């Protein structure tokens, strides 16, 4: 049996708006990080030697920076997926219940982390 959310329509609407706002911000962040990473790699592959570093430490630093940007983009994409999953749970009426134990997630937790899919007890265990 699938549990349906016990949150009021007003609270659910508020949380949905927060999730939509967060999704828009995350999408912008991901696009910007990917664009910056792509622009840096394009410069590297373009053959423009005027922009190349000649010292091995500079080359390593550039590679490390690119790896960091790609890691940040990956983290933002994971969070974006969590937000999209939460929005889907709102649509199907199962939002607000722990995905592990099935118990209701406290409203205060959802207001702090609207994409939360676990209650505090299960989040601590995980």
Describe this structure in words.
The chain has a domain at 9-95. It is 68% helix and 0% strand. The longest helix is centred in the N-terminal third of the chain and has 37 residues, at 9-45. The chain has helices at residues 9-45, 56-92, 107-112, 120-125. It has 126 residues and is an all-alpha fold.
Average of pLDDT: 82
* Helical fraction: 55-70%
Number of DSSP helical runs: 4
Distance between the termini: 24 Å
Our Rg estimate from Cα atoms comes to: 20 Å
How many β-strand stretches? 0
Provide the low-confidence segments as ranges: 45-49
H/E topology pattern: HHHH
Strand composition percent = under 5%
Structural class: mainly alpha
Topology at a glance:
Layout: H1 9-45, H2 56-92, H3 107-112, H4 120-125
Helix pairs in contact: 1-2
Summarize the structure.
It is built from four helices and no strands. It is mainly alpha-helical.
Structural features:
126 residues; mainly alpha; 4 helices; 0% strand; elongated
């Amino acid at each position: 049996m699938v549990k349906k959310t016990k949150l009021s329509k007003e609270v659910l609407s508020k949380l949905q708006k927060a999730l939509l706002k967060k999704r828009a911000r995350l999408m912008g962040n991901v696009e910007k990080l990917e664009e910056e990473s792509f622009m840096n790699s394009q410069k590297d592959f373009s053959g423009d030697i005027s922009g190349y570093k000649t010292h091995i430490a500079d080359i390593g630093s550039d590679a490390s920076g690119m790896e960091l940007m790609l890691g940040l983009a990956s983290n933002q994409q994971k969070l974006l997926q969590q937000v999209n999953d939460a929005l889907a749970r709102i649509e199907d009426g199962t939002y607000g219940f722990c995905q592990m134990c099935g118990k209701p997630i406290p409203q205060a937790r959802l207001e702090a982390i609207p994409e939360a899919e676990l209650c505090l007890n299960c989040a601590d265990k995980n």
